[in-house]
Amino acid sequence: MSDPTQPPVEPTNSGPTNSNPAGASVPPAAPAYPSYPAAGTQPPAYGQAPAYGQNPATGQNPYGQQNPQDKYNVLSIISLVTSILAISIVGIITGHIALSQIKKTGEKGYGLALGGLIVGYLGFVVGILVLIGSIGLLVGIANSGVSEPY
């Protein structure tokens, strides 16, 4: 009752769940999940969006996290802001502490700390000169011998 031109069929493969004849090549089923490119592979072609998240070849962390080396030192920012706001002593102190921390941790903000130190020292020198000038002016007025008009 079988066709003599067909190859013989094994009884174990002829069940109702398996309709493929023995020896026939069946391509494997596609996985249910998408395949992602390995790290360091080429980005997708122009016009195609990446499959998921950021491309690892760009060096960005997924989920919008910052890299540790992208962090700015907070004291360097405080140094620059306080120096600009004419609180020179605070700007100088925080600038020196920030430079020390940046050297140890490798954070960003070296330029901000250096700018805070420069502006802080300039503000401090100008403040000292204004103080000396105003004291000299007060002493000069006191010794001028100007009498009060009556």
Automatic annotation (TrEMBL):
InterPro entries: DUF4190
Domain of life: Bacteria
Membrane-spanning ranges: 74-99, 111-142
Location of the DUF4190 domain: 75-129
Keyword Electron transport: no
A Pfam family: DUF4190
Lineage: Bacteria, Bacillati, Actinomycetota, Actinomycetes, Micrococcales
Species: Cryobacterium levicorallinum
Name of the featured protein: DUF4190 domain-containing protein
Biased composition (Low complexity): 21-40
Sample GO molecular function, one term: isomerase activity
Biased composition (Pro residues): 1-10
Keywords, in A-Z order: Isomerase, Membrane, Transmembrane, Transmembrane helix
Compositional bias (Polar residues): 11-20, 55-66
Disordered: annotated segments: 1-66
